[in-house]
Sequence to fold (239 residues):
Amino acid sequence: MEKREQLYEGKAKKVYRTSEPGFFWLEYKDDATAFNGAKKAEITGKGALNNQISAIFLSLLKQKGIENHFVKTVSDTEQIVREVTIVPLEVVTRNIAAGSLAKRLGWEEGTPLSKPIVEWYYKNDELGDPILNDDHVAVLNIAVREELNHIKEISLRVNDVLKEYLAGRKVILVDFKLEFGKTPEGQLILADEISPDTCRFWDANTMEKLDKDRFRRDLGNVEEAYREILRRLGGQENV
Ligand code: UDP
Fold:
């Protein structure tokens, strides 16, 4: 399979066409952004770390029967994925109150939730990704009821798999964001990435943050934290 022309450039990845229909070529960048692009930096090595971390998580989910777009890794920073049209929703699942939820509820960050919460946000930079309810999603024609139910069910299954897997590696899964896409055949599958850019990971012993909050909150050692996650997942650390 060969890499062809670039189709799209996002904040953290570039998407290319390939010589084979039905497949895209993803390139993970070192660029870091937060607060809807207001804060920017380059973190050397981040693209390679997220490429490998995301491949590990998406392969694990596939093994557990959760269909997703990941096909194979082709270089330090690149992977082949199935072609999908992304559904413009950021689907956030939470186990512990943090970030915007802690703020919205007026709860202290770190307060456990009695059951996981799944939320939808409209993937729209101009609007700053506002939170949506089911009716908003329907009126915006983003997804029908059955699709939303499916997205929620898959998100909760991903949560169960990742929470258990990470607990065995002394990492607490606080919350994470997923994206879904439709294949050319119309199948709705998990897509995008699962990495320290899109999840909150806390060290189970020290509660140290091992994710993008280190960048958002200027805590330092961003690359080291991402590398530590890869190490706990048993990935190759020479990236
Ligand atoms: N998240 C993400 N992309 C976004 C917004 C959030 O990947 O555009 C992830 C974030 O890393 C965290 C979870 O979704 O794991 C919940 O984020 P939250 O709503 O608390 O927003 P934040 O505090 O990051 O603004």
Observations:
- The first helix runs from residue 46 to 63.
- The mean pLDDT is 97.
